Amino acid sequence: MARRRKIYEGKAKVLFEGPEPGTLVQYFKDDATAFNNEKRGVVTGKGVLNNRISEYLMTRLAEVGIPTHFVRRLNMREQLVREVEIIPVEVVVRNIAAGSFSKRFKMDEGAPLPRSIVEYYYKSDDLGDPLVTEEHITAFSWAAPPELDDILALSLRINDFLSGLFLGVGLRLVDFKLEYGRLYADDQVRIVLADEITPDGCRLWDIETNEKMDKDRFRRDLGNVAEAYQEVARRLGILPEAGPRDLKGPAMMQ
């Protein structure tokens, strides 16, 4: 059984060719990065937890009609996804002032926003993922106006659903990042949710204590990063069967 061909490797995941045309295998690493890759580390078991958390959230979103690239989880660190053409724009939905937003507008972290705010960032490590407008996105043809309309509508629906879901397990969804792609099928093109939804890309605070349960624990040297991810998984009812033990490398994939 041969190792599959690597298609792409990012900060937290590796993509391999899938078992059939139009699919990819998405492998979750334990690597942790922050500040545009200036800070790096390894959080043992993070990839296992993120695989399960993203599987759960993508599945729940699909149940309420959100189209995604997710097909199924293959094992503790891998999932099968549909191959899509990634739109080079990160969508950030903010419900509460935090992180760079607080600094940009000189707002106290934790201050509620008058309504959910959607921001767009151009995906470019070299440029530091700059904040962009809808005008930039359409002018540079990163996405057509109808595609951007779909992305905005989907992002707000996802925010509504996930905010309620996390609220039900005692977590506040402060903000989160989404990525989208074009799915080509049957001579049609459809915008679908891609990448992942995990504590790597969400700010999650405990409702009662405001304790951070996300990658800010790594960014800010708060410690107990793996424990926070485990607690999110525990509250969602999806802790891995064997626990988030470290699995070495993407060895053999079926």
Structure, explained:
- α1 (46-63) packs parallel to α6.
- This protein has two domains: 6-84 and 224-236, Phosphorylase Kinase, domain 1 (2-Layer Sandwich); 85-206, 2-Layer Sandwich (D-amino Acid Aminotransferase, Chain A, domain 1), CATH 3.30.470.
- With 254 residues, the protein is an alpha+beta fold.
- It is 28% helix and 32% strand.
- The strands form three sheets. Strands 8, 9, 10, 11, 12, 13 and 14 form a seven-stranded antiparallel β-sheet that branches. Strands 1-2-3-7-6 form a five-stranded antiparallel β-sheet.
- The protein has helices spanning 46-63, 99-105, 134-139, 145-167, 216-219, 225-236; strands at residues 6-9, 13-17, 23-28, 31-34, 39-42, 70-73, 78-82, 85-86, 89-96, 112-122, 131-132, 171-185, 188-194, 202-206.
- It starts with 5 loop residues before the first strand and ends in an 18-residue tail after the last helix.
- It contains six helices and 14 strands.
- It is globular.
